[in-house]
Amino acid sequence: MNISLGDILTMKKPHPCGEKRWLVLRTGADLRLRCLGCGHEVMVPRHKTEKNIRSVQHTENSST
Fold it and tell me: Is 48 helix (H, G, I), strand (E, B) or coil?
């Protein structure tokens, strides 16, 4: 799955604050994500995150 910095991921399940959208801050074997609702940041293994993604909104300034 092609995920790059600045992309917005919509997950299947919401964060406890109620938001389902996350901003990608770091990529690699782990992804660093920021909740767009409350601003909470987490580091999650890529394989675990990719299973829970519903859609990816690519930003224009991301290099592809």
Answer: helix
Mind listing the pLDDT tens digit for each residue in 9-52?
Answer: 999 999 999 999 999 999 999 999 999 999 999 999 999 999 99
Give residue limits of the domains in the chain. 8-57
Question: Taking the complete model, does pTM exceed 0.70, yes or no?
Answer: yes
Determine the Cα–Cα distance for residues 15 and 22; give it in Å rounded to an integer. 9
Angle at 22 between CA 17 and CA 23, to 5 degrees: 135
List all residues 6 or more positions away from 5 whose beta carbon is below 8 Å from its beta carbon: 24, 25, 26, 27, 62
